[in-house]
Amino acid sequence: MAGFAARYPAVAHTFVPALDDDVTLDDETGHHLSRVRRLRPGDVLTAADGRGTWRPYEVTRVTPGSVDVRAHDAPVVEPRLTPRLVVAFALTKGAKPDLVVQKLTELGVDGVAVLAARRSVAQWSDERAGTAVARLRRIARDAAAQCRRARVPEVDGVRPVTELRGRPGLVVADPGGDGADVLAVPADGEWVLVVGPEGGFDPDEAAALEGDRVCLGPHVLRAETAAIAGAAVLTTWRAPIARPSA
């Protein structure tokens, strides 16, 4: 697909504050590219601002912990996919939220929200939630660099399921739902895929989720698997818009 950084023949991809003609990477990224990836002068990499614009650069100088690059071509605005796709998934135990955010980022979702469902086994305090969401945002950024996206998905803090009441474009993962092929394109241009905990939503939460139901297969999926599978299914029905914007 033209315009995507991932399609450009580069040896690495990273994020920078500004896509200037000359950039010095001397932070953690510079350390990684110089010492781990062992970039050399003449190598070409791509850099993005995290908001949709990217640019190819050529490495001009490498020192331990630092890489200097010069613009190899003009900035490019990566096409957006439509409908927008946000995945709101119920909090799960251990490192599973990390895995979900990483894989959703690789699949190209535009946003991620963590839900505090009443039947979730895991429950975060306000203090833990702040620390955990900050970690999830770092994971999203690292995953976006790994899969060479120009946009880093938004990661929202933990919120109650009932806050989704009345939100347009809701699509709830439900074994009794229809296939994704019958979903209508949302009028406001956004799908919000909602995935509950393994115990399901309680009645009040379920009542708040008025929207389409989509079946993700004939078997019972773990919550983290359902979030990833649902995003993969809906992504196949998305397409680049005709005129991309940052």
Q: What does the model show?
A:
There is one protein chain. This protein is of the alpha/beta class and 246 residues long. The chain folds into 2 domains: 5-77, Beta Barrel (Ribosomal Protein L25, Chain P); 81-240, 3-Layer(aba) Sandwich (Alpha/beta knot), CATH 3.40.1280. It is 25% helix and 30% strand. It has helices at residues 28-36, 96-107, 126-146, 203-208, 223-235; strands at residues 13-15, 22-25, 44-48, 53-63, 66-71, 76-77, 81-82, 84-90, 111-116, 154-160, 170-178, 190-195, 212-214, 239-240. A hairpin with a 2-residue loop joins strand 4 and strand 5 (66-71). Helix 2 packs parallel to helix 5 (223-235). The chain starts with 12 loop residues before the first strand and ends in a 6-residue tail after the last strand.
Summary tags:
30% strand, Ribosomal Protein L25, Chain P, alpha/beta, Alpha/beta knot, six-stranded parallel beta sheet, 246 residues
Uncertain stretches of 5 or more adjacent residues: 242-246
CATH topology of the largest domain: Alpha/beta knot
Major pleated sheet: 6 strands, mixed
Q: Helical content, roughly?
A: 10-25%
The CATH level-2 architecture of the largest domain is identified as: 3-Layer(aba) Sandwich
What's the CATH H-level homologous superfamily of the largest domain? SPOUT methyltransferase, trefoil knot domain
Number of DSSP-assigned strands: 14
Number of helices: 5
- Identify the CATH class of the largest domain: Alpha Beta
Q: What is the first-to-last residue Cα distance?
A: 17 Å
Q: What is the strand content?
A: 25-35%
**Shape call:** elongated
Radius of gyration: 20 Å
Residue-averaged pLDDT:
91
